[in-house]
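Batch manifest line 451
LIGAND: S-adenosylmethionine
JOB: complex structure
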Amino acid sequence: MKKNEKVEILIEDMRYSNLGVGYLEGREVKIKNALLGQVVEASLSKVKSKTAKGKVNKVVKRADYEIEAKCEHYNECGGCSRQTVPIEKQLELKNNMVKDLFKRNEISYEEFEPIEKSPIEYYYRNKMEYSFGDESFGGELNLGMHKKGHFYDVVNTINCTIASEDSNKIHKLVLDFARNSGKAKYHIKRHIGYFRHLSVRKGFNTGEILVGIVTTTQEDVNYDELVKDMLNLELDGKIVGILRIKNDGWGDVVAGEYDILFGRDYYYEEILGLKFKVSFYSFFQTNPLGAEVLYSVVKEYLGDAKDKKIMELFSGTGTIGQIISENSKEVFGVELINDAVEMANENAKLNNITNCHFIQGDLFKEVDKLEFKPDTIIVDPPRYGIPNKAFKKILDFNVNEIVYVSCNPQGLMDNLKLANEMGYKVTKVRCIDMFPHTPHVETVVKLKLAL
Ligand SMILES: C[S@@+](CC[C@H](N)C(=O)[O-])C[C@H]1O[C@@H](n2cnc3c(N)ncnc32)[C@H](O)[C@@H]1O
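JOB STATUS: finished
ARTIFACT:
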């Protein structure tokens, strides 16, 4: 076997993250996006004495459990790679993948509980960020998700099956508007052009929709017609705000100051009976019905904490803290984004909760400066995880119990190893399928300080 060679291989195992594993010539070969039971033709990108890595060129034989993808964009779009896997099998693969990580990292647990389903399988996302681009270099203006395996090319995913159907309608309208305007997409490398992104957010339990169109300031367009047409769309929900965001920066992200073209720059969502005001840039779990399941598991893992002071780290808009507040003596939350902190405190007032307080802080830099003395800690870090240097400072609070919510199982393992070294044992683990049809999974872990 050598680099760039094409091989045909049966996938016999799966590993985090989204790797199919086969065995050839005494080597373990890891192939991104290949599924258990498939036979794939792969190009090898790395070959070592005992291992190799490769990427799928084509699926030679599908796994016997595979079905037709529901989404018409599946073959082109880089969005959901598990559309051909029946949902029960997706759950099994995710659960096994996380269990396998515990085993490989030699982290033991008392109980690994069955994975929880998302309450809805399709149209579950409350936030979509679409990119403007072209289907291939120099082609017509497109708006949607990046093409499978391509960094620049964009597919018009107007019938996406994980975005809300309202989001799909708004997507189509903005695509037509942008094409008719005659303005070009923003060219990332040359830094010229106009249209950059479209962001659509929706409160599932309130129906409120917030739309942001991101452009450069190199040109200008009159949005009056678009606003009128958008407000006239037949939607399940109701548009409460339309923003025009100005981004002349280098980063390919939704960012920048904005003008409000219509309504307001926030929407409301209701989760487990509480109301949350969510500003345009605040984090909010992308599967809100799944979030109700997730937060219920956190509440269950926390148990009766009526006499306990809880510290919620990476608190976002303060959802977890407020949901567990009725069960706790006091909740103190810390979050990086000031906007989200303001929302969290405002939300607590809105919900008549008086024992929750949120502050702004960078937990990677200043955990040790926090003066709050918690009895229990809840952490819910971003996908890039918590560096162990910062996690050690969290463990230094020496609380008896920690509830850890993670959307990055590998990062979780790194932290759990350290927690084990510092005397904590894992009592319970439960996965929640917050992201059906993708390889991603949320994991909740309860840690106890061993006596
Ligand atoms: C997965 S979200 C959790 C939010 C909240 N628990 C929820 O469920 O809505 C992670 C949060 O961590 C915040 N964050 C990222 N880096 C941080 C840092 N260095 N210090 C504090 N918060 C940070 C993000 O802004 C985001 O709100």
